[in-house]
Design brief:
Radius of gyration: 20 Å
Structural class: alpha/beta
Largest sheet: 7 strands, mixed
Strand order of the largest sheet: 3-2-1-4-5-7-6
Shape: globular
Number of domains: 2
Number of strands: 11
Strand content: 15-25%
CATH architecture of the largest domain: 3-Layer(aba) Sandwich
């Protein structure tokens, strides 16, 4: 069943989704009342997931072959450009924006320069902030600013948005015009009602949630807070998944199931259980793990979408340029 809004109640805010993965931004923004009008994703399994949930949305595969004229008019361009070359999880020196994967940001910028949508939302690992001593992050911000966007950024952790996973990501918002509008999207004037942990002035040091187990000791238990899924999504043996596991009284452990990883990312149950790989369950499970590990947490995207909807409410008039001056 598609998540698209019906034509009778089409939202004023529309989204073009780049590096879409399995639709974390798309689903989160649609939950905030927006409509996805275009998607771009190169990985075949992720394409299958997108086609299953958004069968009627036009799609592209390789951003390097996309022309600005191929993209429908949209209020918001959103995407988590590849993080492999800036991630701290990468072994050895980081290539940064010179890398073949993370360097695809410049393909996004190429399209942005020509189309100039009113709002841009980008996501990446927090390692982008330190890549090449911060020069890569500075280049991203400067590129957006040179195109006329006011820019704001904020590091958000999924654990504070209703999922039990410690996952810090940097989110960058650009709006045509000054930076005040971009800042008002990512930063509330007053602290919200998210599930923030209370600080402690005195007394014993609190126990890390990573060291607290929940569940039935007779049937199996897990850590109260999962480590970031990405680090163990590339392979599923040894230390790549051993930080996140289910323990059993007799000492046996198992990795998380694809269903459990979907839940840790805020997706509905079975979101990635699509007909791929000709019924090969092992290949399907591996693809599901990897796709969930690389996804944008839906709950975080929904919160940003809600902020966008509130701040950009003047777009409800139908004048896509009314609120960006």
């Amino acid at each position: 069943m598609t998540t698209n809004a019906t034509a009778a109640s089409e939202p004023a805010l529309t989204v073009a989704s780049f590096f879409a993965g399995i639709g974390g931004f798309d689903l989160g923004f649609e939950r905030a009342g927006m409509r996805t009008v275009w998607q771009c994703e190169i990985k075949s399994f992720c394409q299958d997931v997108l086609k299953h949930h958004w069968p009627d949305v036009p799609k592209a595969t390789d951003i390097r072959e996309v022309k600005a004229s191929d993209i429908p008019e949209a209020t918001i361009w959103a995407g988590g450009f590849p993080c492999q070359d800036v991630s701290l999880a990468r072994m050895g020196p980081r290539s940064g924006l010179r890398g073949k994967q993370s360097g695809l940001f410049f393909e996004f910028a190429r399209l942005l320069e020509e189309a100039r949508p009113p709002v841009v939302v980008l996501e990446n690992v927090a390692g982008l902030l330190s890549s090449h001593e911060g020069r890569d992050f500075g280049l991203v911000v400067r590129t957006l600013a040179d195109l006329g966007y006011g820019v704001a950024w904020r590091v958000l952790d999924s654990r504070y948005f209703g999922v039990p996973q410690s996952r810090t990501r940097v989110f960058i918002v650009g709006t045509l015009g000054g930076p005040a509008r971009a800042g008002s999207i990512l930063f509330e004037p007053e602290r919200g009602d998210r599930d923030l942990e209370k600080g402690r002035q005195d007394g014993p040091k609190p126990v890390s949630p990573f060291q607290i187990s929940v569940g039935d000791p007779q049937r199996g238990f897990v850590k109260k807070l999962a480590h970031c899924l990405y680090a163990e999504s590339a392979r599923h043996t040894g230390t790549d998944w051993s930080r996140n596991y289910v323990s059993y009284p007799e000492g046996r452990v198992r990795r998380l199931t694809p269903l459990e990883t979907e839940r840790l990312q805020g997706f509905p149950d079975g979101w990635t259980n699509v007909d791929s790989f000709g019924g090969n369950v092992d290949k399907l499970d591996s693809a599901r793990y990897h796709a969930c590990g690389n996804a944008v947490t839906v709950n975080v995207a929904e919160w940003i979408g809600g902020r966008l909807a509130e701040v950009m409410s003047d777009y409800a008039t139908g004048d896509a340029q009314a609120g960006v001056a």
